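Ticket opened by: R.M.
Priority: normal
Category: complex prediction / small molecule

The reporter submitted a protein together with 4-nitrophenyl phosphate and asked that the result be attached to this ticket for the collaborator who will pick it up next week. Submitted input follows.
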Amino acid sequence: MIRICFVCLGNICRSPMAEYMMKAKINELNLSDEFYIVSRATSYEEEGNGIYPPAKRKLESMNIPISFHKSICLEKKDYNLYDYFICMEERNISNALRIFGNDKEHKIFKLLDKDIADPWYTDDFDSTYNDLEKGLNKLIDSLTKKNND
Ligand code: 4NP
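Result attached by the on-call engineer:
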């Protein structure tokens, strides 16, 4: 079982989009039993709130299934619960390091080399979706290759 936690600032746009897109992809690959996928915030700003409606609409327009979501902030104890913390931008990494204290097991990564723009500010859900698509395909390639070695 590979346990993945997607991380962004508010956990209402990018990381839940990544979570549901990833779930749809691994479902298509018949790998759902081999993955456990969640998403978390690095701030309490949106704690308890649902996925941002335009983000939800974008996923629905791409036929990505969505389940009940509420924003939850990353906690120190989460470090041991997941194998990978996949961040959307550089400051998610510094915030995650602040919450965990360190990354001794090298679990923290960025989904793409570049930062994925926050559609909460840009209002550009298409570009964010396209970046997530690119990053998730790369992630799946690397994880399935690793598994088959
Ligand atoms: P996200 O976008 O990190 O992609 O979920 C944000 C949504 C809300 C806030 C920040 C980022 N906020 O501070 O309210």
